[in-house]
Design brief:
single chain, alpha/beta, 6-stranded antiparallel β-sheet, globular, isomerase, A-D-PHexomutase_a/b/a-III, A-D-PHexomutase_C_sf, A-D-PHexomutase_a/b/a-II
C-alpha cells in the first residue's frame, strides 16, 4: 500500500524520506509544476508516475509512454522517480534521455507510442520542476485530465500491476535531427544568432540549423544548468537584449532565441529590435496564407489585434480565431479546427501539416521563419516587420500572486469590467467596445486599444498585456487602467517587468 501524499513535509526528517509530498497547486490547467524539494519530493514524483500510469489505463489507452528530461541539475533523478511509478502501474517506458520537449512529442510519432511524459521546468527559474503529459498525440493534457490525475495522486487511488517494461533509446536525438533536416538546405544565405540561454536547446539547435545551410552564430549554447547569465526565456527582455547585442555585433540577418525546453522561439530582427511572438505570428500568417489560400489560424487572447485587422490577411482570406492562452488549449483548438497554424504570444507555435505535426517545436518555428525570409527575396526581417500596420504593444508582464488567490482575483476583475460595460463607464477615457472573457478578461476600447488580465497557468502570477494601434501613450493609458484595478487587491505583488 503506497501512502497518500502529504501537502507538506519538513526536509531533513525521517518523514520527508519515508512519505510522498505533493502540493495540490502543482497540478496546473494543462501540465504540472512544483518547486522541487519544497512542494514535491522524489516519493511524490513516484506517486505522480503511479497516478499517470493508472489514468492512462483508465482512459483505455495502450500503457506505453515516451519519457525524457531537460537539462537541470535534478531533472534526471526526477525522471527516474517518475519512471519507477510508471513501471509500477504497468507501463512500458521508452526513455529517450536528455531531450527538448518537442523531441519527446516527435518520439510519440517516430516510435509509434501513444503517451508522453516530459520532465521539464520549461523556462521557469531553477528550483522548479514539472511534467508535460499527453495520451493522444499530438495533444497534451487539459483541465479535465489534470483534474482526474490530481484526484488519483492525492487520493493514492493507484492501480498497480507487474506488467511494466523499460527501454532506453540510445542516441535518439539523431533521429529527431534527421527528421528536421530531411529537406533541401536554404538557398538564401541567412546569418543567424542562435541563442539558447545555456538551456537544453543548446545541444541541438545549432547543428540542426547548420545542417540546413544557416550561418550560425552561437550565443550561450553551452549547457549549464546554473543559467549563469539569465533564464532561457525569449519573452524576457534580458535574453532579447543579449540577442540584440549579438545580432548587431555580428551583422546578422536574424536572432533566434530558444527557451529552456526548446518548444518556443523568440525573434530579433536585423536592426536588433525584438519582434514579439504575436507579431512574428502575423508575419508568418501573411507568408503562409499567400501560399495556402483562405488559411485558418488560431491565436491566443494575449496576441495582437492585427490577426483580424491586418489588410493583407483580410485580402488573402484569412480566418483568425482567438482562443485560451496555454500550449495545451492552443494545440487542441488548432487540431480541432484543422487550422494551418496556431500562434501564442509566448512563442508556442503549432503548425499542422504540411509544415509540422501539430505540436509546438521551437526549431520548426525557426525553420518556418527562415523559409519566410527565403521567400521574401531581398527584403530583410526588419522590412517584413515594418510592413505590418503599426501598433504599440507591451511584453508579457507578470505581477506575483499566490496560486491560491490568483483565480479568485481574476474572477473579480472580470466582474469589474463586465459591470463597467453594463453601466457605460469608460476605461482609460474611452467606452468599452468589446469584452472577451474566454480566458481572464480582454478589454477593448473604442479606438482599438486593449488590455488583458488573466491568471498564469504555470506560476504564482497574473499576466498583463496591453496594446494600442493609436500611440504609445494610449498603450500606457491601458496599462494604468488595468493595473489600477489590480491594485485594489493587496494580494497582487510586484511585476517581473513593466513598460
Amino acid at each position: 500500500m503506497f501512502p497518500k501524499p502529504k501537502a507538506e513535509l519538513k526536509p531533513n526528517t525521517y518523514a520527508y524520506e519515508s512519505e510522498p509530498m505533493v502540493k495540490a497547486t502543482g497540478f496546473r490547467e494543462y501540465d504540472a509544476r512544483w518547486l522541487f524539494g519544497k512542494e514535491i519530493n522524489l516519493m511524490g514524483i513516484q506517486a505522480l508516475g503511479m497516478g499517470l500510469g493508472t489514468m492512462i489505463g483508465e482512459m483505455g489507452v495502450k500503457q506505453e509512454i515516451v519519457v525524457g528530461h531537460d537539462f537541470r541539475g535534478y531533472s534526471a533523478s526526477i525522471k527516474y522517480a517518475l519512471i519507477s511509478g510508471l513501471l509500477a502501474a504497468g507501463c512500458k517506458v521508452h526513455d529517450i534521455g536528455l531531450a527538448v520537449t518537442p523531441m519527446a512529442y516527435f518520439a510519440q510519432f517516430d516510435l509509434d507510442v501513444p503517451c508522453v511524459a516530459m520532465v521539464t521546468a520549461s523556462h521557469n527559474d531553477n528550483g522548479w520542476t514539472g511534467v508535460k503529459m499527453g495520451a493522444n498525440r499530438p495533444l497534451t493534457f487539459g483541465p479535465d485530465e489534470m483534474t482526474r490525475l490530481k484526484e488519483i495522486v492525492l487520493g493514492a487511488a493507484f492501480k498497480l500491476k507487474p506488467a511494466g517494461g523499460y527501454q532506453f533509446h540510445e542516441n535518439f536525438p539523431a533521429r529527431y535531427i534527421a527528421d528536421l533536416t530531411n529537406r533541401k538546405p536554404f538557398a538564401r544565405r541567412i546569418r543567424a544568432v542562435v541563442a539558447c540561454g545555456n538551456g537544453t536547446a543548446g545541444a541541438f539547435a545549432p547543428q540542426v540549423l547548420e545542417k540546413l545551410g544557416i550561418d550560425v552564430i552561437p550565443l550561450d549554447t553551452e549547457l549549464d544548468h546554473t543559467f549563469p547569465k539569465y533564464n532561457p526565456n525569449p519573452e524576457d527582455m534580458e535574453m532579447l537584449h543579449a540577442i540584440r547585442d549579438a545580432v548587431l555585433a555580428n551583422k546578422a540577418d536574424v536572432g533566434l532565441g530558444f527557451d529552456g525546453d526548446g518548444d518556443r522561439c523568440g525573434v530579433v530582427d536585423d536592426t536588433g529590435e525584438e519582434i514579439f511572438a504575436d507579431k512574428v505570428g502575423v508575419m508568418l500568417a501573411r507568408d503562409m496564407s499567400a501560399v495556402h489560400k483562405n488559411a485558418q489560424f488560431v491565436v491566443d487572447v494575449k496576441s495582437t489585434g492585427l490577426f483580424v485587422t491586418d489588410p493583407v490577411l483580410q485580402k488573402q482570406g484569412v480566418n483568425a480565431t482567438y482562443w485560451k492562452t496555454g500550449h495545451s488549449y492552443m494545440k487542441r483548438r488548432t487540431h480541432e479546427l484543422g487550422a494551418l497554424a496556431g500562434f501564442e504570444k509566448s512563442g508556442h507555435f503549432f503548425f499542422n501539416p504540411p509544415v509540422g505535426r501539430g505540436y509546438d517545436d521551437g526549431l520548426v518555428s525557426a525553420i518556418a521563419i527562415c523559409e519566410m525570409l527565403q521567400r521574401a527575396g531581398n527584403r530583410k526581417m526588419s522590412d517584413l516587420k515594418n510592413a505590418l500596420p503599426k501598433t504599440w504593444s507591451s511584453p508579457t508582464m507578470s505581477p506575483h500572486c499566490a496560486d491560491e488567490a490568483k483565480y479568485g482575483i481574476v474572477a473579480d476583475v472580470v466582474k469589474h469590467f463586465e459591470a463597467a460595460q453594463a453601466k457605460g463607464e469608460k476605461v482609460a477615457g474611452q467606452p468599452i467596445r468589446d469584452l472577451v472573457t474566454v480566458n481572464g478578461v480582454r478589454v477593448t476600447c473604442e479606438d482599438g486599444s486593449w488590455g488583458l488580465v488573466r491568471a498564469s497557468s504555470n506560476k504564482p502570477e497574473l499576466v498583463v498585456v496591453v496594446e494600442s494601434p493609436v500611440s504609445e501613450q494610449r498603450m500606457r493609458d491601458m496599462f494604468e487602467a488595468m493595473d489600477a484595478v489590480l491594485r485594489t487587491h493587496p494580494e497582487v505583488g510586484e511585476y517581473n517587468q513593466k513598460i
